[in-house]
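Ticket #4471: structure export looks truncated?
Reporter: QA, pipeline team
Priority: medium

Steps to reproduce: submit the single chain below to the structure queue and open the exported record.
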Amino acid sequence: MSAIIDTFIAPPCHDSIDILYQDAHLLLINKPSGLLSLSGKNPLNLDSVHHRLVAQFPGCTLVHRLDFGTSGIMVIARNKSINAALCQQFSKRAVSKGYSALLCGHVVDDEGIIDAAIASDPALFPRMSICPINGKPARSRYRVVERFSRETECGALLAVTRVTLLPETGRTHQLRIHSQQLGHPILGCDLYGGRLLPGTEQTPRLMLHASELDFVHPVSGARMNIRHPSPF
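Actual output as written to the record:
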C-alpha cells in the first residue's frame, strides 16, 4: 500500500475561537471555519484548535474533530479522565450531533436517509469513497429547512437547499460524501463537487456548521444540549 503524503498547507486563520461554556472539566467552543482541529505534521500547520487552547488550558485534549472548513460546536476535555469518559459516549453513539448545511440544487424530498458505507483509499487521498464491500457502515439523516435561490457574481441564479444533517455514525467526511451521494453536494465543498456548478467557484467557505451537540456531562450527570446558530 502506498504511503499517504499530505501536501496541504492551511492558510492563516484570523478568526478567534469562541468559548461557549467552561467548567473545571470541559470546554464547549465554536470553531471557526478555516482552522485545523489538530496541528499537522508539517510545522506550517501548527495553528489549530488544540494548539490555541492548550496554551490557555494546559492539559486539554480533543474528544472529536471537525473538518478544516467546518465551523461549529466542539467539546474539549480538560484532563485525560474526562476525555476517556466523553470518548466512551461517542463510541457508544450516546452523543447526538446536528449540522446546518447549504446544499447545491433543490432537494426533492423533505427528509430522508443516506445509508452508504465509506472507505479510505490512499490513491484518492484526501477524499474518501463510497464502497459497500470495503467501507465502514455510515448513515446520515437529512431534513430540508428551506429551498431558495441566490444570485451569483455573474448574475445567474443558483438553486440552494438549507438542510439539517444528522449523522448517526461518525466517519471521516461522512456528511460531505453522503451529500454528494444524494446528488446535492455541500456548497463550497472542494473535495466532493460543491464548487463545480457555475457560480459556486467563489463560495468563501464550506457551508457546513456543527450547530447542535447533546451529551451527558461526565461529572455532574447533567444533560448538555448545546446549540449555536449557523453563520450563513
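Status: closed, not a bug. The export was complete when the record was re-opened. Leaving a note from the reviewer for reference: The chain has a mean pLDDT of 95.
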